[in-house]
């Protein structure tokens, strides 16, 4: 009898746990985005910002974001000078990080910039894990179906290769039959694969597109000869060639100049506030000084081109 | 039976003894509760739209996914084959009385178990960055039999993946094989030696066949593990199953359904391995334990019984 009672108690406990578990799994919690635990390591927070909040901008900030007080910004920190890990080994630094902090200050929020793999950022925005994606996103019509963009910069795509013995090409059309390393989820991946289809249609050999989780891995594949060419956004390609101390060189022409956009979840309705904050930064000179700090002021856009969802392709 | 008892039967028979099997209500209640919990989990998963089941169905038999599955199977089979051979060789080297040989084996096992598999994969894939002037195979410190001007000509992406997986697996297998070998009683080795068998003959004819019973379950485990480890090869842009699903979701942003597609195929492949392992274990368990010889049907039918 004692044994019978013990097993009944155990069974009742099990069923209670099971009920709770089954109920919990059917409703997701989109608002709990403060848990940056599953994206890798570090965050960097701005100094207290309520004193520099712009009242006109703060008025446009959605209530949910205002009450949270923190703007969680995701960036793939393998893309210098736009976003990369600083010398302390864990803080995300770069043009996008600086811009995010300045924008959050204008909105009366604190920015927390976290490192996340590039192809997880847009899904993370859609699921409410992040409030903003500032990771050199090219604003494209395809991406606008999933998230909203506030355009803030202009960049094209450049090619780079090994300085000695690298491939010599002029543009996308020369990629037929070559091996190209790109980062996963980027427009460069789309362009290289699109070019491969065109090559095969023209009867030429396809492009061997090697897709890597980070730009660093793509660069490593280039230096170890797995790929003959790599493609990246023009400011990033230029910076990497400079930092490589003669290992890489730029090759071919920059193409496809298009706007960068700060990615925002459609449901959060935060695009008007971010756009207003951006225009304030442009008018008071902060925008230009951030770009100049990283040597990429050539990609600056005038206030008239700063808009929501301004994709050109 | 005595004559008096027989006469009792014709007149006032005692009641037959009603032998009732031991009732085990706890088993039935536990089974019912487990089934209830399982049903509610299944219901919550199936009716949850975020899983994107229609997308899962659409891409489940996509040619890129199926090709990726084939590549995964190739890598698993090839790496396990090389890994098991390496493991046996290393285990024997470890148990060798020659100190140089056993130390060399120890060093190999220490290094390849001590570094992460992902790092090993990245090193093998980018090996040309370590040998920029090409690779030569030949006599150590002597002439090359064959020379490759570029390391990638010899170590292609597939070869790099194979090397990384099998060399890592060899280190882990060697410990499993060593465990199997030392589980065979020393008396067997002594008896073999007293019959005049050489060390190699003893190992091959007496020790290893008996060690197989202890080696098979963890090896099955390692094979199932290897099936999943091949997903790490996706960081080298090699088109195995996980990379194939990543390529698809990079374009359509439907991450969860595509990952479910990959998971379903990994589960299917793992299940096939389960069946294989079951039959191999029964074969090598002959003569040891009766319980291991029950078929699956016999096990299920005995749920209400007194045994076990």
How would you describe this structure to a colleague?
The complex is a heterodimer of chains A (313) and B (308). With 313 residues, chain A is an alpha/beta fold. Chain A folds into 2 domains: 50-155 and 258-305, Periplasmic binding protein-like II (D-Maltodextrin-Binding Protein, domain 2, 3-Layer(aba) Sandwich); 157-257, Periplasmic binding protein-like II (D-Maltodextrin-Binding Protein, domain 2), CATH 3.40.190.10. Chain A has helices at residues 2-26, 55-60, 63-68, 95-107, 118-126, 141-144, 187-201, 215-223, 234-243, 271-283, 286-293; strands at 70-75, 78-79, 83-85, 92-93, 110-115, 132-133, 147-162, 179-183, 208-212, 229-233, 248-265. Chain A has a 5-stranded mixed sheet with strand order 9-8-10-7-11, with helices on both faces. Chain A has a 3-stranded parallel sheet with strand order 5-1-6, sandwiched between helices. In chain A, helix 4 (95-107) packs across helix 10 and helix 4 (95-107) runs antiparallel to helix 11 (286-293). The longest helix of chain A is centred in the first third of the chain and has 25 residues, at 2-26. Chain A starts with a helix and ends in a 20-residue tail after the last helix. With 308 residues, chain B is an all-alpha fold. Chain B has one domain (59-133, 149-304): MetI-like fold, CATH 1.10.3720.10. A two-stranded antiparallel sheet of chain B has the order 1-2. In chain B, strand 1 and strand 2 form a beta hairpin. In chain B, helix 6 (117-125) packs antiparallel against helix 8, helix 8 (157-183) packs across helix 10 and helix 9 (186-194) packs antiparallel against helix 10 (199-229). The longest helix of chain B has 32 residues, at 63-94. At the A-B interface, helix 1, helix 5, strand 9 and helix 8 of A face helix 2 and helix 11 of B.
């Amino acid at each position: 009898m004692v044994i019978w009672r013990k097993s009944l108690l155990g069974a009742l406990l099990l069923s209670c746990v099971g009920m709770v578990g089954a109920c919990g799994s059917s409703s997701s919690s989109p608002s709990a985005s403060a848990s940056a635990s599953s994206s890798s390591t570090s965050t960097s927070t701005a100094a207290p910002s309520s004193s520099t909040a712009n009242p006109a901008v703060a008025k446009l900030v959605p209530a949910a974001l205002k009450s949270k007080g923190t703007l969680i910004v995701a960036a793939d920190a393998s893309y210098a000078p736009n976003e990369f890990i600083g010398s302390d080994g864990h803080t995300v630094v770069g043009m996008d990080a600086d811009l995010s902090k300045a924008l959050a200050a204008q909105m009366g929020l604190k920015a927390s910039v976290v490192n996340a793999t590039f192809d997880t950022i847009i899904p993370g925005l859609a699921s409410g894990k992040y409030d903003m994606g500032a990771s050199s996103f090219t604003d494209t019509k395809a991406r606008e179906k999933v998230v909203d963009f506030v355009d803030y910069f202009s960049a094209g795509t450049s090619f780079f290769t090994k300085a000695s013995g690298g491939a010599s090409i002029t543009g996308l059309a020369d990629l037929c039959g070559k091996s190209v390393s790109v980062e996963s989820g980027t427009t460069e991946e789309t362009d290289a694969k699109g070019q491969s289809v065109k090559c095969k249609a023209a009867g030429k050999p396809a492009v061997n597109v090697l897709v890597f989780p980070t730009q660093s891995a793509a660069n490593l594949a280039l230096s170890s000869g797995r790929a003959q060419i790599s493609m990246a956004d023009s400011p990033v390609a230029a910076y990497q060639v400079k930092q490589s101390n003669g290992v890489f060189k730029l090759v071919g022409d920059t193409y496809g100049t298009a706007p960068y956009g700060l990615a925002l979840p459609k449901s959060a309705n935060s695009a008007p506030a971010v756009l207003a904050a951006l225009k304030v930064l442009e008018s008071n000179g902060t925008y230009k000084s951030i770009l100049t700090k990283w040597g990429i002021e050539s990609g600056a856009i005038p206030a008239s081109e700063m808009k929501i969802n301004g994709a050109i392709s | 039976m005595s004559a008096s008892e027989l006469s009792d039967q014709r007149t006032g028979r005692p009641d037959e003894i009603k032998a009732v099997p031991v009732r085990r209500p706890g088993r039935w209640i536990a089974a019912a509760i487990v089934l209830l919990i399982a049903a509610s989990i299944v219901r919550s998963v199936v009716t949850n739209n975020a899983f994107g089941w229609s997308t899962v169905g659409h891409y489940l038999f996509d040619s890129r996914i199926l090709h990726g599955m084939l590549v995964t199977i190739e890598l698993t089979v090839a790496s396990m084959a090389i890994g098991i051979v390496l493991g046996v060789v290393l285990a024997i080297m470890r148990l060798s009385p020659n100190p140089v040989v056993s130390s060399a084996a120890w060093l190999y096992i220490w290094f390849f178990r001590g570094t992460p598999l992902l790092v090993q994969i990245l090193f093998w894939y980018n090996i040309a960055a370590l040998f920029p002037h090409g690779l030569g195979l030949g006599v150590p410190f002597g002439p090359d039999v064959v020379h490759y001007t570029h390391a990638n000509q010899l170590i292609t992406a597939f070869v790099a993946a194979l090397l990384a997986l099998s060399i890592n697996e060899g280190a882990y297998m060697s410990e499993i094989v060593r465990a199997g070998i030392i589980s065979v009683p020393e008396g067997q080795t002594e008896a073999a030696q007293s019959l005049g068998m050489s060390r190699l003959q003893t190992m091959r004819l007496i020790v290893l066949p008996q060690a197989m019973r202890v080696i098979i379950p963890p090896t099955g485990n390692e094979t199932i593990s290897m099936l999943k480890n091949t997903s790490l090869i996706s960081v080298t842009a090699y088109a195995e199953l996980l990379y194939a699903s990543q390529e698809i979701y990079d374009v359509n942003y439907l991450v969860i359904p595509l990952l479910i597609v990959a998971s379903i195929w990994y589960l299917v492949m793992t299940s096939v391995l389960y069946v294989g392992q079951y039959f191999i274990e029964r074969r090598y368990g002959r003569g040891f334990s009766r319980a291991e010889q029950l078929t699956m049907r016999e096990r299920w039918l005995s749920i209400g019984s007194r045994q076990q």
